[in-house]
From TrEMBL:
The chain crosses the membrane at residues 12-45, 66-86, 101-122, 131-152, 274-293, 305-324, 331-357, 363-385, 397-418, 430-451. Belongs to the polysaccharide synthase family. The keyword Transferase does not apply. Pfam families: Polysacc_synt_3. It is found in: Cell membrane. It comes from Cycloclasticus zancles 78-ME. It is a multi-pass membrane protein. This is Membrane protein involved in the export of O-antigen and teichoic acid. GO terms for cellular component: plasma membrane.
Length: 472
């Protein structure tokens, strides 16, 4: 599963890099202005009602039919809203072209909604290889079309067409991999079950989406497409690394948390272990990325994108936050404790809007600072909520992060010292490669000196959990 997800993300990122180098920041920003609303709508049909299929124990055919028709209705409504409001959304940005981009990209919401049930059934059956293959085919097909159009000077339309082709192929293929077809077996009870179960997380997902997408809308409206393109690049790098690091751990943790809760075992102890594992992997990765941000952005995207470097360094701290927050959320969802997280996420979204609008006059650096600050201001409350659910004191829970953080900071200082000492003598590639090598070597040595027994035991536990998760 992990190899499939990683290959999917890596191919998608390579297409992203190629299009960015060909088309430049302004085209990227214009595409993002439209796509932020499309992706928001896609997420609403992808990550809400279908959770019932993945997590519900007593799943009936009526539930599947109810979800299909609800998703179809929701998708049609969202597509209609995107088309009807396209002109108004374009006015927010003072960019009339955005209306056409938004209108032509909107059908992807319907594609995802209509294939939501078969995709969720494949997840329920743990058919992750099938999901990875169809996603990869979609990414490659869309990427080829997008790159061809880029070389033919179609500008922003490259991104729109690439995304539509990718989503269409991706979701068309899923019907060939699953024999399920919709019928009318849904009763009132089935609709009630689906809505009551999914309703617990819909609000949480919406507030998370608002939090993540606020910077894009505000930058587009106040600073224009060029600055939005720079910010999009900075955030995309963080997103990809976050996905590659956190998803495997989260995949193992979710069924394990739920199983321990049902068995009345020490889920709190497991939370501490999983949190420490995530910190051991993500803290050095994101702090290391702060150190190598300049050569990384310059090498991958070219000189036009150096304006993204400062914002990227700041956004890496959001990556650190996400590496722990995703584990905390998985734990709370497994326990069925959603309401407190929803209210906290709602407060985060409101605070983020206020801070980002306040600091937008300082450019994308100001937006990045506000974006990260919002999460760190609210993070203590999340720790309090989760530690209470885990029946742990706050200090006891925070203690698991201390050594991983100290070790990552030591690695960071030594890598920075290396760059200061030797950086002037190296090319961009050599500086990047040598910095990664020095940082990785330093971190391994520090871990061996301070935590070798703990690390060995933690990763043994992770391997055992991965084996058990397939039987939960």
């Amino acid at each position: 599963m992990f190899a499939g997800n990683w290959s999917e993300q890596i191919i998608n990122f390579l297409v992203f890099i190629l299009l960015a180098r060909i088309l430049g920041a302004e085209a990227f920003g214009l595409a993002t202005m439209a796509m932020v609303f499309v992706v928001f709508s896609e997420f609403l049909v992808r990550q809400t009602l279908t959770e019932t299929i993945v997590q519900q124990k007593n799943l009936e055919d009526g539930h599947l039919d109810a979800i299909f028709y609800l998703l179809a209705l929701l998708s049609v409504v969202l597509v209609a809203l995107l088309i009807l409001l396209a002109e108004q959304i374009a006015q927010i940005y003072s960019e009339p072209r955005v209306a056409d981009y938004l209108t032509w990209a909107s059908p992807t919401v319907l594609f995802i909604g209509l294939s939501g049930v078969p995709v969720a059934l494949l997840k329920r059956k743990l058919e992750f290889r099938v999901l990875a293959v169809r996603a990869t085919v979609g990414i490659v097909t869309g990427g080829i079309v997008g790159v061809i159009l880029a070389f033919m000077d179609y500008g922003v339309w490259c991104f729109i067409v690439q995304h539509v082709v990718k989503v269409f192929v991706n979701n068309a293929l899923v019907w060939t991999a699953n024999p399920w077809t919709p019928k009318w077996r849904a009763k009132k009870k089935h609709f009630h079950d689906v809505l009551s179960f999914s309703g617990q997380i819909v609000g949480l997902r919406i507030t998370e989406l608002i939090s993540i997408n606020t910077p894009m809308v505000v930058i587009g409206a106040y600073l224009g497409p060029g600055m939005l393109g720079q910010f999009t690049i900075a955030w995309r790098i963080v997103e990809v690394l976050s996905f590659l690091l956190i998803t495997p751990i989260q995949y193992v943790a979710q069924p394990a948390f739920a199983h321990l809760d049902r068995a009345s075992e020490a889920a709190g102890d497991l939370l501490a272990k999983i949190t420490k594992i995530s910190a051991l992997v993500s803290f050095p990765s994101f702090l290391g990325m702060v150190v190598v941000s300049a050569p990384l952005v310059e090498l991958l995207f070219g000189d036009e994108w150096v304006g993204a470097i400062t914002a990227h360094k700041i956004l890496c701290f959001v990556g650190i936050y996400l590496s722990i927050e995703r584990i905390q959320q998985a734990y709370c969802l497994a326990l069925g404790k959603v309401s407190a997280l929803f209210y906290l996420s709602f407060a985060e979204a409101l605070l983020g809007i206020l801070l980002i609008i306040t600091f937008v006059d300082y450019g994308i650096m100001g937006v990045a600072i506000a974006f990260a600050a919002r999460y760190y201001i609210m993070w203590p409350f999340r720790f309090i909520i989760v530690s209470n659910y885990a029946d742990r004191s706050l200090l006891q829970y925070l203690k698991v992060l201390v050594l991983p953080l100290i070790n990552a900071i030591i690695m960071t200082f030594i890598t920075v010292a290396w760059q200061q000492l030797m950086g002037a003598n190296f090319s961009t590639f050599t500086l990047l490669a040598s910095s990664v090598l020095v940082g990785l070597s330093t971190y391994c040595i520090v871990l061996w000196a301070t935590m070798r027994t703990q690390v060995r035991e933690l990763f043994k536990s992770l391997i055992l959990l991965r084996e058990k998760s397939n039987s939960f």
